[in-house]
Amino acid sequence: MPVSFDLTGKTAIVTGANTGLGQAIAVALAGAGADVALVGRSSMAETEAAVSAAGGRSLSIRADLSTLEPIDRVIKETLAWTGRADILVNNAGIIRRADAIDFTEADWDAVMDVNLKTVFFLSQAFARQLITGGKSGKIINIASLLSFQGGIRIPSYTASKSGLAGLTRLLACEWAGKGINVNAIAPGYFSTNNTEALRNDPDRNAAILGRIPAGHWGEPEELGGAAVFLASPASDYIHGIVLPVDGGWLAR
Ligand code: NAP
Fold first, then answer.
1. Could you say which protein family the record assigns here (predicted)?
2. Distance 133 CA to ligand 1 centre (A)
């Protein structure tokens, strides 16, 4: 059998798909043949157009993922659309910046809720419909370099992304035998809303750029290949990894 990266006939759910990395992942999966459910709290118009331009089909589902309330609806609406949900990309995430000494409970809870709690319970709902239907599937969590490193001024973000790496491994151990691959991608420094504050700070920007062997901030499209790989049959024997896509940052 030739190696396959083909996602034709599969349905993917991508959270936080209106912008940034989620948008690029949705477009890459559509380009590989998947139908894509775009989940988020903002208009998906830009992503809908980009998916369509890539020759794909999309369904937009409005959902605020700061609570567990929309989870069942996200799965139900996806199943009502194509009758299947094969791939889940847990991409939606937020970051709050402040010195650890001043960090508030509100900034702790907000980040943990979106980046970790909702990810777990959406993955659980996604896996239940696969297991009940006797089907296989793929979960891809969007982790971070802060899954490996400490960072500064982002305590809840680092805790959530380090926790997400652990959760990826636990779910892989529990669900690999049920035909569900659970893996993560750890993006390095990409040009999105998430990193705008860093890019606008000349000192931080220069320090970050100076440490990236590839010599440039990642462009969202540069993440697409890893997402397609982990969503496709080519990665069927890969379970529980956190794959850095970081221009060489961690190799430094
Ligand atoms: P971004 O442009 O800020 O995108 C974040 C996405 O998450 C947006 O679509 C946002 O929707 C969505 N989101 C946030 N809170 C939500 C909520 N309560 N309900 C529904 N959707 C919500 O940043 P990004 O860089 O593309 O981030 C995507 C993922 O990559 C995040 O998990 C982030 O931690 C991770 N990451 C990014 C980098 C980087 O360098 N950029 C590096 C490592 C990891 P709205 O637009 O409506 O807010």
1. Belongs to the short-chain dehydrogenases/reductases (SDR) family.
2. 31
